[in-house]
């Protein structure tokens, strides 16, 4: 693993994991935590470890968050800057919760992103999670920050969500997929919010399968 800075701020860095031999593709892992400073990229390390074992080059990124000079548009700008900072070819963005929001948002705005896997993602700021979204941005910024307001994304998006998610309602993914023509909905029965980023669970397996499919253009 190599730590690489993509800016001068302490939160503008990432961890690059490279497999032995030729990589099968690139993945950008974007951690969640409702955009708050108290959550960091350590949440993405287990996923990076699993994916590098599958032969992917993985860029596990940090970004400025609420309480640490983040907010909108800084948080989104950091994600785009991080994606541009390392050359691991075309990439799939993989993001959990608030990171899922950033994964889909980045797919809409970055030419390097070929698709996104949104794990229990916050996708529509106007529903269910408005109070949390208002900690990131103002209501006037919803149209530029909320993925549901940006459809069509223009890239394939796979939304994986548990039907027992206690933090982000599964309706976030259902509603998004109803409005996005290139979105695929995967509802995992009995899965909760953190199952998505817990290797060994059925939820994580579905996420990993989605990454592989998008990276291979399937």
Automatic annotation (TrEMBL):
Chain ranges of the BD-FAE-like domain: 27-111
Matches recorded under Pfam families: BD-FAE
Gene3D superfamilies in alphabetical order: alpha/beta hydrolase (3.40.50.1820)
Keywords of this entry: Hydrolase
Gene Ontology MF terms: hydrolase activity
Coiled-coil features, chain-numbered ranges: none
Protein name according to UniProt: BD-FAE-like domain-containing protein
